[in-house]
Amino acid sequence: MVDEETESRHGHTWDYEDYAQFAEFLRQGVEDEEIAELLGRTKSALRSRAKYLLPMSDDNKDLRPSEALNRLREYVQTKTNDEWLANVFAWHQSLGTPLWDGGSDERLRTAWSAGSPTLPALTEELGFREDQVAKRFIHLGLAETTVQLVERLGCTPDGLIAIRARLARDATAARLWVLTMNKGSQTVHISLHPNRMEAERTRDDLLHNPTDKADPSPWHWAIAERVVGEGSVRATEYGAVDPTPSAPS
Question: Fewer CB within 10 Å, N- or C-terminus of the chain?
Answer without folding.
Answer: C
